[in-house]
Target: Replication termination factor 2
Amino acid sequence: MGGDGGTLNNSRMELVRVRKEMMKKGSSSVVEKDVKERDRWMTCAVSRERLKIPVVACRLGYLYNKEALINLILDSARRTRMAEFAHVRSLKDMLECKLELVEDGKNAVFKCPISLKEATGAIKFSVMWGCGHVVSDQALNQLKKEEKKCVLCEETFTDLVKIHPDDKTRTELREQLEAKQAKKKKDRKKKPDETTKVDQPKKKQRVSAPDEKTPKIYESLFTKGHDHKHTANARGSFTGVSLRPSGV
Model:
């Protein structure tokens, strides 16, 4: 541990020392794999610098220094180049982890707060997507799976995201995440149109004022020529005024 209130001891010399110790115990291929796993638990996936609190995780199980990941989000050109992390688009796509630190550990920097197993890559860990507690899978297997509630803080979590899953699992998670993001994007495009249809008040039909000419037009349509004469004579007889010219 460093004395800077959260910076983790991850010097290159320490990794070399660990590699030498492990070389004595197994083959070089196994050692390299173990060292790689251990290294992932010590370094930021984006900046490749030593992890320091606050540490955040994404839905694909990468660990980052929070500041480094935010800087990546703000730098669109760099984010395009680092397509591997393009799925992190905003603060909503990351979760700040609550990690148990190893005070004087030489081979690990984190440990499970329940089983006290160190995070060296030998055993799997998951983060509870909600409260952010990082716990070993061994400890989680002993808990009631039907209860999605953190045993440490009793906060409800939505998912268990595996930290540093194998390549096959991460590929599957990436495909699922891309499909989910595509669906959200499609739904956002539909939503404004649907909202407009629901919220838009119905247009009132305009009722035109009656036109004085309209009755006469209708009368001319439905009245024949001989009826006009008959009507005119009738009007004349009713008023007592002769409609014939004088002298006829």
Notes: Strands lie at 55-58, 63-65, 94-96, 100-101, 110-111, 125-129, 134-136, 159-163. Confidence is low (pLDDT under 50) at residues 1-11, 228-243. The longest helix spans residues 167-199. The chain has eight helices and eight strands.
